[in-house]
Amino acid sequence: MTIKTERIKEDEKYMQEALFEAEKAGIIGEIPIGAVIVKDGEIIARGHNLREREQLSTAHAELLAIQDACKEVGSWRLEDCTLYVTLEPCPMCAGAIVQSRLKRVVYGARDPKAGCSGTLMNLLDEPRFNHQVPATSGILEEESAILLKDFFKQLRKRKKEQKK
User: Fold this and answer.
1) Confidence at residue 1, expressed as pLDDT on a 0 to 100 scale
2) What is the pTM of this model?
3) Which of 6, 62, 79, 126 is catalytic?
């Protein structure tokens, strides 16, 4: 097996864990986005969206996972960690990723409305910042996108039924 093939398999393994987190969010009525942070081959933090439950605009999966990872390693610097997230990070999360000095980001689906890791812009690779974070996109993209599409389809259906 080549190094590239091994990396893809590893990325898919951890992205599957991020998808489990996303499913947890969907079950409780949150937009199904999940994240995990990996250090030295182990998941050290997990997060899924909790904006509705917490009524907190910053309760994104990535930010919750970053907070837990910082506590776990005892530092705000996550230099040896990789973040796996099911949806491309928004501007707020991309900023937190850069600020926390993550080594790498891997995401599933692109976000055409708020994606700041390559779609609308790439804050992770902004040369004017003192730290850049390489990103890999499209890992389990279809699975990530289907979770989101199904969630919003059901949400629209419920809202339509409530209007009757």
Assistant:
1) 66
2) 0.94
3) 62
